[in-house]
Design brief:
By secondary structure, this protein is mainly alpha-helical. It is built from 9 helices and no strands.
């Protein structure tokens, strides 16, 4: 299955079935999202062997966190792409930490880092869904492909059939719109906490 098919997949969500213990849904999940996760892993890992390890870790994480998926908050493929991207970034951070230190990280320190990263992931996922939901449909579609799935402009052109100029314009406007939404969201809690 191609990333395009995964992106367009309007089939019934599989994560609630996985969370309910449906083993057949696990195989379907790999078939549906394997190409998407593999392409992301290959972009963000140094070797194909490392990418294979990363894909395995990502799918374990997907199954572990399947119960967190809420279709009302966003599409399943976006949930999986964000989770995969977060996992890949976590792997890169850990590899850099290990290379920077002659001694391996202590288990307690690793557990502390993992807890912090999980909290960051949950917060980022909520923010990402909230911002994407407020963009126009064309902006959201292109932003998901660019930011979440990590596609280049030319890959998005091939995926969507849009002109290159249109893709660039949609991304530029989407980024500006997203920044405005994010800035407004940050100002609201501060304003609420201000003394009269």
């Amino acid at each position: 299955m191609t990333a395009k098919q995964a992106y367009r997949g309007a089939d019934e969500p599989l994560l609630p079935q996985i969370a309910a213990g449906n083993r057949a849904a696990v195989a379907k999940c790999i078939d549906r999202y394997g190409a998407l996760v593999w392409s992301m892993a290959r972009r963000l890992t140094p070797t194909s062997e490392d990418a294979e390890d990363a894909v395995q870790d990502i799918f374990v994480d997907i199954w572990r966190h399947a119960c967190r998926f809420d279709a009302a908050r966003g599409a399943e493929n976006i949930f999986i792409a964000i989770l995969a991207k977060r996992k890949l970034i976590d792997r890169m951070r850990r590899q850099k930490l290990r290379r920077a230190s002659e001694e391996p990280l202590e288990e307690t320190h690793e557990a502390s880092i993992a807890g912090t990263l999980r909290a960051e992931h949950d917060s980022e996922m909520d923010s990402m869904h909230a911002i994407l939901a407020r963009l126009t449909l064309p902006q959201r579609r292109v932003m998901e492909l660019s930011l979440v799935q990590g596609m280049s402009h030319s890959e998005i052109v091939e995926q969507t059939g849009l002109a290159l100029g249109t893709v660039k314009t949609l991304i530029r406007r989407g980024v500006l719109h997203a920044r405005a939404i994010a800035a407004k969201t940050e100002e609201t809690p501060r304003a609420a906490g201000e003394q009269p």
